[in-house]
Amino acid sequence: MNEVATVGPGDPYAREFYYFGQGAALMAPQGVVYNERYLSIGDGTLIGPNVCLTAGISGEQEMLCAPTVAIGKKCIIGRGTHIIGHWSIELGDEIQTGPYVYITDENHSYEDPDEPIGWQTPSEAAVRIGSGSWLGANVVILPGTVLGRNTTVAAGAVVRGEFPDHVVLGGVPAKVLRHYTPEGGWQAGASET
Known about the structure:
The chain has strands at 19-20, 25-26, 33-34, 39-41, 46-47, 52-55, 69-71, 76-77, 82-85, 89-91, 96-97, 102-104, 106-107, 123-124, 127-129, 134-135, 140-141, 146-147, 152-153, 158-159, 162-163, 167-170, 175-181, 185-188. The chain is an all-beta fold.
């Protein structure tokens, strides 16, 4: 469905979403999009081509909260990105992602060494990305990640944990490479406080 046309707020398909904002658009060709009633796309947000946006593991699954995936206003979600929500994923306003970013709030578990990993109960933890942030190409955001406002995440980083406002993250696993203070401007490493 919708393989050749951009979807906007006035299209019948947009009414299937929890919220589909004014000036928002899903660019063609679209990736996998299902359980739309749990997906919120903010005003002026552009979802690039081949982006996968899902809540749960099927279009019929009942989720515990609505919206399960909430994307704020004036965001740009780069081509090929996957935002896969099961519990709660919140992207603030004016966030941009490079291509092929992966954001999820659920991960496989491996506690039982005798049980295949794919059959074990997954673990879930909410994800929040602060307004004004930039996620470079191929960034992976894992369950439980909380990013502060205006955070930059370097391409290829794998992020898990909580990070303050105004930092630059990079690496696998990601760590603070630079931080900003009003007194000293941008400085190397994490803040001492």
